[in-house]
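hey m, so remember when u said the tokens were messed up on ur end? i reran from scratch. heres the input so u can diff it against urs
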Amino acid sequence: MDTIPFFLILDSIIKKTSIKHPDNMEKTLVIIKPGAIQRGLIGEVIHRFERKGLQLCGIKMMQLSDEILADHYAHLLQRPYFKRIKDAMMITPVIVSCWKGLDAVHIVHEMAGKTNGREAAFGTIRGDFSMSVQENIVHTSDTVENAKEELARFFSDEEIFVFDQVTLNYLYANDEI
């Protein structure tokens, strides 16, 4: 009797059960801010999203310009604290990343916690690492529409990758995606 190597059996099971590129997955933006970079929290922030089961689809470091900040924070341009925000976001480069998952926009925004780190719940990124409304570790998209706009602002189509996430069967029930 011939035996079949285990890796061939496992490969066959994965191919039969894997879910490829579900249509109902959202993408969202996370910006790891200069304060988090200065404090060495990049890995911690990324690790939390990975542990949750979100898929990293794009990531890069970039220096933000006056133009991109004016566009990104257009809703705050006339506020007296806009200059403080702009100056703080330009101290160092930032890490911009795209994360994908079922209800990713809501999940990521909730994982970040309230904007003011002193008010954010323990267990959230801001609740665990922030004492400030400005130096609050991350920016996250707050709506699906904003996520689409923000991702387009920071990434070209070629910088967002689509690939099979082999763990999907262990993250979601087959009727969820």
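this time it looks ok to me. The chain has nine helices and four strands. if urs says something different then somethings off w ur setup not the seq
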